[in-house]
Amino acid sequence: MKNYHSLRNNKEFQMVYNEGKSKANKYLVLYYRKNDLEYNRLGISVSKKVGNSVVRHRTTRLIRESYRLNQDNLKTGYDMVVIARQTAKGKDCHTIESAFLHLVDLHHLRRVEHN
């Protein structure tokens, strides 16, 4: 069962690329922009340079799972596109998740907890 909203077509991805901001680390690149909605939308891009279809789908699943586990801690109202770099090939779940969270922190997209 899908529990997140996704960017669906090329036009939506292009808007994030052209109007958004980006930061990168060793494994991932994260683009984001405001979307004026009350929820986030996620797009994932893994090119053929990363590997064959099995490798690409595994990488996509790891990124999606990293987002799913942390979506409650993210600010809402953003379109995000996560792009896997070639170095992400064959990495484990914890490595991809920490790379994702590193980029979220660089963009200040993590929700601030008030006690």
TrEMBL record:
<dbReference type="Pfam" id="PF00825">
    <property type="entry name" value="Ribonuclease_P"/>
</dbReference>
<comment type="subunit">
    <text>Consists of a catalytic RNA component (M1 or rnpB) and a protein subunit.</text>
</comment>
<dbReference type="InterPro" id="IPR020568">
    <property type="entry name" value="Ribosomal_Su5_D2-typ_SF"/>
</dbReference>
<keyword id="KW-0378">Hydrolase</keyword>
<dbReference type="InterPro" id="IPR014721">
    <property type="entry name" value="Ribsml_uS5_D2-typ_fold_subgr"/>
</dbReference>
<keyword id="KW-0819">tRNA processing</keyword>
<keyword id="KW-0540">Nuclease</keyword>
<keyword id="KW-0694">RNA-binding</keyword>
<keyword id="KW-0255">Endonuclease</keyword>
<dbReference type="InterPro" id="IPR000100">
    <property type="entry name" value="RNase_P"/>
</dbReference>
<comment type="similarity">
    <text>Belongs to the RnpA family.</text>
</comment>
<dbReference type="GO" id="GO:0004526">
    <property type="term" value="F:ribonuclease P activity"/>
</dbReference>
<comment type="function">
    <text>RNaseP catalyzes the removal of the 5'-leader sequence from pre-tRNA to produce the mature 5'-terminus. It can also cleave other RNA substrates such as 4.5S RNA. The protein component plays an auxiliary but essential role in vivo by binding to the 5'-leader sequence and broadening the substrate specificity of the ribozyme.</text>
</comment>
<protein>
    <recommendedName>
        <fullName>Ribonuclease P protein component</fullName>
        <ecNumber>3.1.26.5</ecNumber>
    </recommendedName>
</protein>
